[in-house]
Predict the 3D structure of the following.
Amino acid sequence: MTRLVVVGAGITGLTAAYEWHRARPDDEVVVLEASGRIGGKLDRVRLAGQWYDTGPEAMLARVPEAVQLVEDLGLAGQLVAPATTQASIVLPDGRHPLPPGTVQGVPTSADGLDGVLTPAGVARVRAEADLPPLHLDPNGDVTVGGLLRERLGDEVVDRLVEPLLGGVYAGRPDDLSLAATMPALAAQLRRAPSVLAGALAAREAGARSRGDADGPVFVTVADGIGSLPAALVAASRADIRLRTPAHALRHSGSGFELSVGPAGSPHILTADAVVVTAPAGKAARLLAGVAPGAEEPLRGIPYASMAVVAMAFPAQPVAAGSGLLVPPVTGRLVKGVTISSAKWPHLSGGADGAGVLRVRSSVGRYRDESQLQRSDEDLTAAVVADVADLLDLERPEPLETHLVRWGGGLPQYLVGHPQRVTAVLDAVGAVPGLAVAGAAYGGVGVPACIRGARRAVAALL
Ligand SMILES: Cc1cc2nc3c(=O)[nH]c(=O)nc-3n(C[C@H](O)[C@H](O)[C@H](O)COP(=O)(O)OP(=O)(O)OC[C@H]3O[C@@H](n4cnc5c(N)ncnc54)[C@H](O)[C@@H]3O)c2cc1C
């Protein structure tokens, strides 16, 4: 019998445990988790009588691994498609519908941008045609903001791309890697004469690869995406050890030894194979002894912290579609509002059958985390006030609120990230029996994390 040890009980670690158990049901699978709960960034609360996600709340269906996993777990009946995906961007001059047909906010032409950009901003986009042809180094990387400011002007970055990237990464276009955060666009831009032409090509290539596939772009889970960790634990039959951090990893004979448990009195756990899914900084420390080449690139992956406030208000009309994206140019506290009761049909009802307005809002971006120093009470009140103002609520007194802090919530794919990931994977891949996976590498979304876990297990097996 073989013993697999997985470090971290987030979606990546629990998926790795499940996939290993499916392939080798007689093996022993131990999952070490530093905190007192499973799930990592997946979590849910009861909000006005319903399960409500306070971590991820939507999963991209075009990366099929999350939907497949939910189906494999026998939970296909729990998948829910959004009732609306029409979001708006809040700008200093008011609210504007998200223009259709952009590639992560990058326009394919100057048409349809009136309103969301000023006339001067639209003219600047149109003027890309007068710039010299684009030449991107095929092996290099640039920041999203650096490239787009030069080619299309500041407004495209500050009013369109920032709200979309800010929502996914809690990061800033001026720091984030084009190749890592917009890989489909980056691939087209290496041969396109302009950003507009490259974005159009990326959009068309995406449509071709989807073919006739219809179905929603995003899905959620009726009992919360936060219900998946417990389902994975049950299906994997893994030995989950809570409050049991891994401190160090060493070679031992043909396998490994991990130092685990309380820092003052750790004990040794042996393993034939190890999958490390802890965030980059922790992974760097663990891998230093067995895959030293991974340490420095992992230390180059910082994280953004944020807080999510879940709120229930009395039912009332709100004309904001699925939600609002709120970029820093507005000077607002919150960076977005999701109108969950409009977006997800199962979240519109209250415990007594009457309607409830359920919304969530988040605060905090990379290198802009000062508001997170406020007390829970103060931060919650400030978020409720900002949301009530943004939505122009008639009845702004919440029935219920929950504040959840996510310290080190999202890894930042800074310029050069693909090279960093390659260096980590090369160093780890050279060590038989060792693998890494998780949000730090090939995508922060839940489906990408599940894909990474499956690949890690397949490589080890
Ligand atoms: C507020 C928020 C909203 C999000 N919204 C979405 C969304 O709508 N859709 C989407 O697809 N994605 C979303 N994401 C991203 C996604 O949820 C995460 O990227 C993903 O869940 C990360 O999973 P993971 O398993 O890689 O890491 P984690 O969930 O961070 O799990 C790693 C685990 O390792 C443990 N650990 C750390 N060090 C050690 C150690 N030394 N020993 C043992 N255990 C250790 C940690 O305690 C943790 O439980 C969101 C993220 C956040 C924070």
In short: Residues 7-13, 32-35, 40-42, 55-59, 245-246, 277-279, 282, 306, 308, 406, 409-410, 438-439, 444-446, 449 surround flavin-adenine dinucleotide (CB under 6 Å).
